[in-house]
Amino acid sequence: MLRHHPLRSGALGAASLLVTTALLTSCSSGTQGATTLDEDADVTLTWWTGQADQAQTILAGLAEEFEQEHPNVTIEVSSGAPSTEDLLQKLSSSFAGGTYPDISYAFGSWASELADSGRTLDITDQVSDPAVGWEEFSGAARATAQPTGEETIGFPAVVDNISLIYNKTVFDRAGVEYPTEDWTWDDFRAAAEELTDPATTTYGYGYSVSGSEETTWQFWPHLWQNGGEILDEFGTQATFDSEAGVEALTLLRDMAVEDESVYLDQTDTKFGQIFASDQIGMITSGPWSLYDLQTAGTDYGVVPLPGTDGDHTTISGADLWVLFDHQDANREYWAYEFTKWLTDPEQDVRWNVAYGNLPLRESEIDSPEFAAQVEAMPGLDVMAANSANATIPRPTVPGYVNLSEAIGTAISEVLQGKGEPAEALQRAADEATAALADS
Amino acid sequence: MSPGRRVREGLTGWGFVAPATLIVLGLSIFPAVWAFLLSLQDWNGFSVPEPVGLANYQDMARDADLAAAVGHTLLYTALFVPASVLLGLGLAVALNRRIVLVGVYRTLIFLPFVVSAAATGILTTYLFNPQFGLVNNVLRVLGLPQQGWLEDPQQAMVVIALMSLWGQAAFTTVIYLAALQDIPAELGEAARVDGANRWQSFWHVTFPQLAPVTVFVAIWQAIQAIQLFDLVYTTTRGGPLKSTETVVYYLWTSAFKELEFGYASAVAYGLFAVTLAITIGVTIYSRRSTVGGLG
Q1: The whole model's pTM is what?
Q2: Which CATH entry fits the domain spanning A163-313+399-438: 1.10.510.10, 3.40.190.10, 3.40.50.300, 3.30.43.10?
Q3: Does residue A334 contact residue A43 with C-beta atoms inside 8 Å?
């Protein structure tokens, strides 16, 4: 009779949820692996892809191909978790149980925590081989794979960046000229104001104020273009409350509060849908949006982010294939070989490019596969070229999640008319610095 | 009875309870103990846990965000519990009559209760979206001012309380209906013979009979209310400006967003202590007073 909500299962329920991740810490098992490398010995690798549906099918197909080329290697492919986000929890509990995979997908923001676990391989020596073409990955992607600056814990898996996507229908309706690649943020602000029309509930721009990383990372290009930095050179103090930061947040605040030209999204997902249904003129987003826009039949265009004094710096997110150490020379060897093979341009055009992600290396832009994708998803070429503007990596220090939370909250408050940019940023920076010292 | 047979019967008994015991131990008691140990550590899920003694509990006392979350939870409880008890009582009295299609009405009232909170939450965001939602459209047609609803920090919690009421009032209604049908009809007849009007007979005869049930539903709904998570998760994610961040939502953010598993466990234990205290307090009160047991 008394119904029990699964999500409301109470304080102890919540506690037990925490604990499932902590189970078995004490009894991590492990059999003794090969100490000397034998390339011909049978070896079984576990690979968590973090993907679903079509992406998962493509990756499983590639694993099968690798197995055919190397008959002694068996790769057990699975998604690893119901969603990519859940992989972190899954990894955490698998460390405790000693059942972690050889290769796992990981969001770039987890890199420092994973490196911290002491379970990752260090492939710095191997990737210094010129045949790997490591230097052809973007600087931001390479930095993410080396969260501590010393060890290299894996290969870049997916890279993306944010560009300015504009809705041609909304621009035409308001009679505003389309954005160009030479736009400044002033042009951007003026256009957003012109596009806004309360009568038809149309907004110039959409910004997430959920306070999550979505709120935070959209802000970094503004900060960087103004010459600001997130952290000091030692990575111990948050410096985003500099004048550059205040100026950046003031621009967004003025748009949101004075011009009222920004749709403030309390979730991270709604502004994309509203843009697709022609009620928002511009969003700053990445390749993952293009697929939805295609499905919705939205008439859109893509240009790089507006700039400051000709600087169009954008932010890049790089996700990783992280390699884990099982004290087994053979598994270590094949995990590395497989990941190297997978991220090779020849395979990457069949995976990232075929799926609609950006290519990992610039050289793939000239491939026929990529040309076909651009045909299907116009603007993907602009986004690929925009990778050149992703010059600054997101910090990979432990404690970045707390920093992100602190400034995300500050941005969200200021955009909703609560507090002043300078004061809010300073408070967030103090909080972030304290969190950095803690971790 | 021979000793051997008694032992065998004892073993058979344990055989029957063993599966359930294992489940309770494995899925409730063990995690609870583990969470307590975790609450004494600083752990991000990956590094080696660091014992920190009671530091997590001390941090709770200084945590302004947690204090705010407690405030939001209390506000929600204050909105939700009296409203759900009164609404449930009112609906139960209205449905406790021989009218045409009463079965249909009862089913309709109960329907939202069966809908999952996730669905209710998604429905809420559509209805109460300030720009595109149905509720503001109705207001527009009526010429009334537009409201921010879930995007207005002052109103968001009220909207969430309304939506949970929509789902949860059915629960109190059903309990009250059952209790009403347990009241002997002679009592009401006797009161009427004595010249009581309908209000007097409700207030002096029916309502006192419902007192134990009222205590039960109030406690039950209060415990539910201080554990609010699902509706917040599916509608506002704690926003706008953290105005709907409840204790359990805050706990969840600490653990899975900020990777502070130790601290989150401490918060979970804090919440557990509060729930326990309420339950014990009310049990003692109801034993001492004439209200009767909790059921």
Answers
A1: 0.79
A2: 3.40.190.10
A3: yes
